[in-house]
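Record type: monomer structure entry
Structure origin: computed from sequence
Chain ID: A
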Amino acid sequence: MITVIGARFKKAGKVYYFDPGELMELTEGTEIIVDTARGLEFAVATGAPTEVSEKSVIKPLKKVVRLVDEKDKKKHAENMKRKKSVLDTCQKKIDAHKLDMKLIDVEFTFDNSKVIFYFTADGRVDFRELVKDLASVFRTRIELRQVGVRDEAKMFGGVGGCGRGLCCHTWLPDFNPVSIKMAKNQGLSLNPTKISGICGRLMCCLKYENEAYLYLKKGLPDVGDHVKTPDGTAVVMETNVLKELVKVRQVLPPDKKTPDEERLSPDISVFKKQDVKNLEKKKKKQKVEDDIIPDEVKDLLGD
Protein backbone atom coordinates (compact mmCIF):
# COMPACT_ATOMS: atom_id res chain seq x y z
CA MET A 1 0.00 0.00 0.00
CA ILE A 2 1.07 3.58 -0.64
CA THR A 3 -0.20 6.88 0.81
CA VAL A 4 -1.57 9.28 -1.81
CA ILE A 5 -3.69 12.39 -2.13
CA GLY A 6 -6.27 12.70 -4.90
CA ALA A 7 -6.43 16.00 -6.79
CA ARG A 8 -8.39 17.55 -9.65
CA PHE A 9 -7.32 20.31 -12.01
CA LYS A 10 -10.84 21.03 -13.29
CA LYS A 11 -14.36 20.82 -11.99
CA ALA A 12 -15.61 17.29 -12.73
CA GLY A 13 -12.15 16.43 -14.05
CA LYS A 14 -10.23 13.22 -13.56
CA VAL A 15 -8.70 12.50 -10.16
CA TYR A 16 -4.92 12.11 -10.18
CA TYR A 17 -2.81 10.73 -7.35
CA PHE A 18 0.11 12.62 -5.80
CA ASP A 19 2.53 12.06 -2.94
CA PRO A 20 1.35 14.28 -0.04
CA GLY A 21 4.83 14.24 1.52
CA GLU A 22 4.61 15.90 4.94
CA LEU A 23 1.23 17.52 4.19
CA MET A 24 -0.82 14.82 5.89
CA GLU A 25 -3.53 17.18 7.14
CA LEU A 26 -4.96 17.98 3.69
CA THR A 27 -8.74 17.84 3.41
CA GLU A 28 -11.29 17.94 0.60
CA GLY A 29 -11.26 21.31 -1.15
CA THR A 30 -7.76 22.27 -0.07
CA GLU A 31 -6.00 24.19 -2.86
CA ILE A 32 -2.50 22.91 -3.59
CA ILE A 33 0.36 23.31 -6.05
CA VAL A 34 1.51 20.00 -7.53
CA ASP A 35 4.37 18.90 -9.74
CA THR A 36 3.26 17.31 -13.04
CA ALA A 37 4.81 16.28 -16.34
CA ARG A 38 3.62 19.64 -17.74
CA GLY A 39 5.16 21.65 -14.91
CA LEU A 40 3.66 23.17 -11.76
CA GLU A 41 -0.14 23.04 -11.68
CA PHE A 42 -2.89 24.54 -9.51
CA ALA A 43 -5.14 21.75 -8.16
CA VAL A 44 -7.79 21.00 -5.54
CA ALA A 45 -7.57 18.03 -3.16
CA THR A 46 -10.49 15.60 -3.38
CA GLY A 47 -10.09 14.29 0.17
CA ALA A 48 -7.64 13.46 2.92
CA PRO A 49 -4.51 11.37 2.27
CA THR A 50 -5.40 7.71 1.95
CA GLU A 51 -3.74 4.39 1.26
CA VAL A 52 -4.23 2.67 -2.10
CA SER A 53 -2.74 -0.35 -3.81
CA GLU A 54 0.57 0.32 -5.54
CA LYS A 55 -0.92 -1.25 -8.69
CA SER A 56 -3.39 1.65 -8.98
CA VAL A 57 -0.61 4.26 -8.99
CA ILE A 58 1.39 5.32 -12.04
CA LYS A 59 4.98 5.65 -11.00
CA PRO A 60 6.98 7.75 -10.39
CA LEU A 61 4.46 9.44 -8.11
CA LYS A 62 4.68 13.24 -8.36
CA LYS A 63 4.65 15.31 -5.18
CA VAL A 64 2.48 18.02 -3.70
CA VAL A 65 4.81 21.02 -3.73
CA ARG A 66 3.01 23.28 -1.26
CA LEU A 67 -0.28 24.69 -0.09
CA VAL A 68 -1.65 27.59 -2.13
CA ASP A 69 -0.90 31.00 -0.64
CA GLU A 70 -2.31 34.43 -1.51
CA LYS A 71 0.37 35.00 -4.15
CA ASP A 72 -0.54 31.72 -5.83
CA LYS A 73 -4.25 32.55 -5.77
CA LYS A 74 -3.57 35.90 -7.40
CA LYS A 75 -1.49 34.30 -10.14
CA HIS A 76 -4.14 31.66 -10.79
CA ALA A 77 -6.83 34.35 -11.03
CA GLU A 78 -4.68 36.27 -13.52
CA ASN A 79 -4.34 33.16 -15.67
CA MET A 80 -8.12 32.76 -15.71
CA LYS A 81 -8.60 36.40 -16.73
CA ARG A 82 -6.19 35.98 -19.62
CA LYS A 83 -8.25 33.23 -21.24
CA LYS A 84 -10.58 35.46 -23.26
CA SER A 85 -7.85 37.61 -24.78
CA VAL A 86 -5.69 34.56 -25.56
CA LEU A 87 -8.63 32.78 -27.22
CA ASP A 88 -9.37 35.88 -29.30
CA THR A 89 -5.76 36.05 -30.46
CA CYS A 90 -5.71 32.37 -31.36
CA GLN A 91 -8.98 32.66 -33.28
CA LYS A 92 -7.57 35.50 -35.37
CA LYS A 93 -4.55 33.36 -36.23
CA ILE A 94 -6.82 30.43 -37.17
CA ASP A 95 -8.82 32.71 -39.48
CA ALA A 96 -5.61 34.07 -41.00
CA HIS A 97 -4.40 30.56 -41.82
CA LYS A 98 -7.90 29.58 -43.05
CA LEU A 99 -7.94 26.41 -40.97
CA ASP A 100 -11.16 24.37 -40.69
CA MET A 101 -11.19 24.01 -36.91
CA LYS A 102 -13.37 25.21 -34.04
CA LEU A 103 -11.51 26.64 -31.05
CA ILE A 104 -12.99 25.41 -27.77
CA ASP A 105 -10.86 26.31 -24.77
CA VAL A 106 -7.40 27.21 -23.55
CA GLU A 107 -5.39 26.18 -20.48
CA PHE A 108 -2.23 27.55 -18.94
CA THR A 109 0.15 25.65 -16.71
CA PHE A 110 0.44 27.45 -13.40
CA ASP A 111 4.00 28.57 -14.13
CA ASN A 112 3.01 29.63 -17.69
CA SER A 113 5.56 27.24 -19.19
CA LYS A 114 2.96 25.95 -21.66
CA VAL A 115 -0.32 27.06 -23.27
CA ILE A 116 -2.71 24.31 -24.40
CA PHE A 117 -5.46 25.06 -26.93
CA TYR A 118 -8.38 22.66 -27.43
CA PHE A 119 -10.30 22.45 -30.71
CA THR A 120 -12.70 20.26 -32.66
CA ALA A 121 -12.52 19.45 -36.37
CA ASP A 122 -14.07 16.98 -38.80
CA GLY A 123 -10.69 15.52 -39.75
CA ARG A 124 -6.97 15.99 -39.37
CA VAL A 125 -5.70 19.57 -39.39
CA ASP A 126 -2.20 20.69 -40.36
CA PHE A 127 -1.61 23.37 -37.74
CA ARG A 128 2.20 23.48 -37.79
CA GLU A 129 2.37 27.05 -39.11
CA LEU A 130 -0.30 28.09 -36.60
CA VAL A 131 1.81 26.75 -33.73
CA LYS A 132 4.80 28.77 -34.93
CA ASP A 133 2.71 31.96 -35.05
CA LEU A 134 1.29 31.38 -31.59
CA ALA A 135 4.73 30.63 -30.15
CA SER A 136 6.07 33.91 -31.54
CA VAL A 137 3.15 35.80 -29.95
CA PHE A 138 3.05 34.18 -26.51
CA ARG A 139 6.77 33.26 -26.32
CA THR A 140 6.14 29.94 -24.60
CA ARG A 141 5.53 26.31 -25.52
CA ILE A 142 2.31 25.80 -27.47
CA GLU A 143 0.20 22.66 -27.69
CA LEU A 144 -2.92 22.19 -29.82
CA ARG A 145 -5.11 19.26 -28.83
CA GLN A 146 -8.03 17.97 -30.90
CA VAL A 147 -11.02 16.75 -28.84
CA GLY A 148 -14.39 15.17 -29.60
CA VAL A 149 -17.90 16.59 -29.31
CA ARG A 150 -18.37 15.03 -25.89
CA ASP A 151 -15.29 16.79 -24.59
CA GLU A 152 -16.62 20.02 -26.07
CA ALA A 153 -19.87 19.65 -24.11
CA LYS A 154 -17.88 18.85 -20.96
CA MET A 155 -15.86 22.06 -21.31
CA PHE A 156 -18.76 24.36 -22.24
CA GLY A 157 -21.46 22.87 -20.04
CA GLY A 158 -25.19 23.38 -20.53
CA VAL A 159 -28.59 22.02 -19.50
CA GLY A 160 -29.73 18.53 -20.45
CA GLY A 161 -33.20 17.33 -21.37
CA CYS A 162 -33.83 16.56 -17.68
CA GLY A 163 -33.53 20.26 -16.85
CA ARG A 164 -30.32 19.85 -14.86
CA GLY A 165 -26.72 20.74 -15.63
CA LEU A 166 -24.85 18.31 -17.87
CA CYS A 167 -23.44 15.39 -15.90
CA CYS A 168 -20.12 15.56 -17.76
CA HIS A 169 -19.70 19.22 -16.79
CA THR A 170 -20.92 19.07 -13.20
CA TRP A 171 -19.66 15.79 -11.75
CA LEU A 172 -18.84 13.03 -14.27
CA PRO A 173 -15.03 12.63 -14.48
CA ASP A 174 -14.90 10.05 -17.29
CA PHE A 175 -17.06 9.09 -20.26
CA ASN A 176 -18.39 5.53 -20.23
CA PRO A 177 -19.21 3.64 -23.44
CA VAL A 178 -22.91 3.91 -24.32
CA SER A 179 -24.59 1.62 -26.86
CA ILE A 180 -27.88 1.45 -28.74
CA LYS A 181 -28.61 -1.80 -26.90
CA MET A 182 -28.92 0.17 -23.66
CA ALA A 183 -31.71 2.24 -25.21
CA LYS A 184 -33.37 -0.98 -26.43
CA ASN A 185 -33.17 -2.45 -22.90
CA GLN A 186 -35.32 0.46 -21.72
CA GLY A 187 -37.77 0.05 -24.58
CA LEU A 188 -37.01 3.53 -25.87
CA SER A 189 -37.81 4.62 -29.38
CA LEU A 190 -34.67 4.86 -31.50
CA ASN A 191 -35.41 8.50 -32.23
CA PRO A 192 -32.20 10.58 -32.19
CA THR A 193 -33.96 13.52 -30.56
CA LYS A 194 -35.08 11.29 -27.68
CA ILE A 195 -31.88 9.39 -26.89
CA SER A 196 -29.11 11.89 -27.68
CA GLY A 197 -27.64 14.64 -25.51
CA ILE A 198 -26.73 18.17 -26.57
CA CYS A 199 -23.36 16.82 -27.74
CA GLY A 200 -25.19 14.82 -30.42
CA ARG A 201 -24.15 11.47 -28.96
CA LEU A 202 -26.10 8.90 -26.94
CA MET A 203 -27.04 10.21 -23.50
CA CYS A 204 -24.68 9.15 -20.71
CA CYS A 205 -27.65 8.49 -18.41
CA LEU A 206 -28.57 5.44 -20.52
CA LYS A 207 -25.48 3.83 -18.99
CA TYR A 208 -26.44 4.71 -15.40
CA GLU A 209 -29.89 3.13 -15.75
CA ASN A 210 -28.86 0.09 -17.77
CA GLU A 211 -27.87 -2.09 -14.81
CA ALA A 212 -31.23 -1.54 -13.10
CA TYR A 213 -33.14 -2.39 -16.28
CA LEU A 214 -31.10 -5.56 -16.84
CA TYR A 215 -31.86 -6.65 -13.26
CA LEU A 216 -35.59 -5.95 -13.57
CA LYS A 217 -35.81 -7.67 -16.97
CA LYS A 218 -34.60 -10.99 -15.55
CA GLY A 219 -37.52 -13.42 -15.82
CA LEU A 220 -39.59 -10.96 -17.85
CA PRO A 221 -40.81 -12.49 -21.15
CA ASP A 222 -40.34 -10.74 -24.46
CA VAL A 223 -43.13 -9.40 -26.64
CA GLY A 224 -44.46 -12.28 -28.75
CA ASP A 225 -43.56 -15.01 -26.25
CA HIS A 226 -46.13 -17.65 -25.33
CA VAL A 227 -46.61 -17.76 -21.56
CA LYS A 228 -48.65 -19.65 -19.01
CA THR A 229 -50.87 -17.41 -16.88
CA PRO A 230 -53.47 -18.07 -14.16
CA ASP A 231 -56.09 -17.76 -16.94
CA GLY A 232 -54.34 -20.10 -19.35
CA THR A 233 -51.97 -19.81 -22.32
CA ALA A 234 -51.42 -16.30 -23.65
CA VAL A 235 -49.19 -14.24 -25.93
CA VAL A 236 -47.23 -11.27 -24.57
CA MET A 237 -48.30 -7.97 -26.12
CA GLU A 238 -46.35 -5.52 -23.96
CA THR A 239 -44.15 -5.41 -20.86
CA ASN A 240 -43.54 -2.73 -18.24
CA VAL A 241 -40.02 -3.24 -16.94
CA LEU A 242 -40.13 -0.78 -14.03
CA LYS A 243 -43.49 -2.03 -12.71
CA GLU A 244 -42.64 -5.64 -13.65
CA LEU A 245 -45.99 -6.13 -15.37
CA VAL A 246 -46.89 -8.19 -18.43
CA LYS A 247 -49.81 -7.41 -20.78
CA VAL A 248 -51.12 -10.44 -22.64
CA ARG A 249 -53.92 -11.66 -24.87
CA GLN A 250 -55.28 -15.09 -24.10
CA VAL A 251 -55.04 -17.85 -26.73
CA LEU A 252 -58.52 -18.95 -27.80
CA PRO A 253 -59.46 -22.51 -28.83
CA PRO A 254 -58.74 -23.16 -32.54
CA ASP A 255 -61.43 -22.53 -35.11
CA LYS A 256 -62.65 -25.68 -36.86
CA LYS A 257 -62.36 -23.99 -40.25
CA THR A 258 -58.79 -22.79 -39.66
CA PRO A 259 -57.35 -25.14 -37.02
CA ASP A 260 -53.75 -24.13 -37.75
CA GLU A 261 -54.38 -20.43 -37.22
CA GLU A 262 -53.81 -19.11 -33.71
CA ARG A 263 -56.64 -16.99 -32.37
CA LEU A 264 -56.20 -14.42 -29.63
CA SER A 265 -58.71 -12.78 -27.35
CA PRO A 266 -59.36 -9.09 -28.12
CA ASP A 267 -59.14 -8.33 -24.40
CA ILE A 268 -55.86 -7.39 -22.71
CA SER A 269 -55.00 -8.97 -19.36
CA VAL A 270 -52.30 -7.69 -17.01
CA PHE A 271 -50.22 -9.96 -14.76
CA LYS A 272 -47.24 -9.56 -12.49
CA LYS A 273 -43.94 -10.98 -13.70
CA GLN A 274 -43.97 -13.79 -11.13
CA ASP A 275 -47.44 -14.92 -12.28
CA VAL A 276 -46.38 -15.79 -15.83
CA LYS A 277 -44.09 -18.51 -17.10
CA ASN A 278 -42.62 -19.07 -20.54
CA LEU A 279 -43.94 -22.14 -22.35
CA GLU A 280 -41.22 -22.33 -24.99
CA LYS A 281 -37.56 -21.60 -25.19
CA LYS A 282 -36.78 -18.16 -26.45
CA LYS A 283 -35.30 -17.96 -29.87
CA LYS A 284 -31.70 -16.92 -30.06
CA LYS A 285 -31.80 -13.16 -30.39
CA GLN A 286 -30.05 -11.42 -33.20
CA LYS A 287 -27.21 -9.25 -32.04
CA VAL A 288 -27.66 -5.51 -32.23
CA GLU A 289 -25.58 -4.95 -35.34
CA ASP A 290 -25.42 -2.00 -37.71
CA ASP A 291 -27.84 -3.61 -40.17
CA ILE A 292 -30.73 -3.35 -37.68
CA ILE A 293 -29.89 0.13 -36.44
CA PRO A 294 -31.70 2.94 -38.28
CA ASP A 295 -29.35 5.05 -40.42
CA GLU A 296 -30.33 8.26 -38.63
CA VAL A 297 -29.24 6.71 -35.30
CA LYS A 298 -25.82 5.50 -36.43
CA ASP A 299 -24.39 9.01 -36.11
CA LEU A 300 -25.02 8.83 -32.35
CA LEU A 301 -22.42 6.06 -32.02
CA GLY A 302 -19.44 8.37 -32.59
CA ASP A 303 -16.77 9.37 -30.08
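Annotation 1: Residues 178 and 207 are 6 Å apart (CA to CA).
Annotation 2: Helices lie at 70-97, 128-138, 149-156, 167-170, 180-185, 192-195, 205-217, 295-298.
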